[in-house]
Specification:
Blueprint: E1 2-6, E2 27-28, E3 31-32, H1 33-43, E4 48-53, H2 57-64, E5 73-78, H3 85-92, H4 94-97, E6 103-108, E7 111-113, H5 118-121, E8 130-135, E9 159-167, H6 182-190, E10 194-199, E11 203-205, H7 209-220
Parallel strand pairs: 1-4, 1-6, 4-5, 8-10
Antiparallel strand pairs: 2-3, 6-9, 7-11, 8-9
């Protein structure tokens, strides 16, 4: 199985930290956010990784190169300035992701978590075409944006973690274009094509300089 790390976002809310650096290269405890993902994937036995690039993408390729020094194989996809958004980036990389298997993992490059992606490698999707990990709503997203699959009509909402397992078929009706993932996932939930789980462990969306500072403070404790 292969995995993709989404790293093409502009990171405007992280300015000035991202003036000359892609957001996934911001450091937690002295290492880039994206390096934690690569190490976590490797521990789960996933060594073939695709990373999409746009804003300051050369900073990522300069640091990781082909991934061999980290014990993995990294391929890159280049996107136009501004990127293709989350779903667009995945669709653009589909040929690389599905060379030998139609199932793959996707991680947002700007999250910090201890989620064990090995659980996704063992997951059987059955009738679903995608499986996403939800978390309890953080302070910056108190209303949430997703419900659990078996509670589609429930008013209890959670937050999408940016961690998911996907079948190629989930994106088969879409072409490469600027396209966010959220609306596709919500439609899939309504249609019964997306399964979910609720993760209660460590998870943070590093979306502002203040959140990055807070995570680094916690790592020092």
């Amino acid at each position: 199985m292969k995995a993709m790390i989404l790293a093409a976002g502009r990171g405007k809310r992280m300015m000035p930290l991202t003036a000359n650096l892609p957001k996934p290269m911001l450091e937690v405890a002295g290492r880039p956010l994206i390096e934690y993902h690569i190490q976590r994937l490797k521990r789960a036995g996933i060594v073939d990784i695709v990373i999409n690039l746009a804003w300051q993408g050369e900073k990522i390729t300069q640091y990781f190169s082909d991934g061999s020094q980290f014990g993995v194989n990294i391929c890159y996809t280049n996107e136009p300035e501004g990127g293709l958004e989350t779903a667009g980036g995945i669709i653009n990389a589909m040929n690389l992701l599905c060379e030998s298997e139609d199932k793959f993992i996707v991680l947002n490059g700007d999250i910090f978590t201890d989620y064990d992606v090995n659980a996704l490698t063992q997951l059987v999707l059955n009738h679903a075409e995608a499986h996403i990990v939800l978390v309890e709503n953080p302070v910056h997203n108190p209303e949430g944006d997703f419900c659990l699959a078996h509670q589609v009509n429930n008013q209890q909402h959670y937050t999408f973690s940016g961690i998911g397992l996907y079948q190629k078929a989930f994106f088969s009706s879409h072409d490469v274009e600027f396209m966010p993932l959220g609306p596709i996932l919500r439609a899939g939930l309504d249609e019964g094509r997306v399964s979910t789980e609720l993760y209660l462990g460590q998870w943070s969306d590093i979306g502002t300089p203040e959140r990055l500072l807070e995570i680094n403070r916690k790592q020092e404790q």
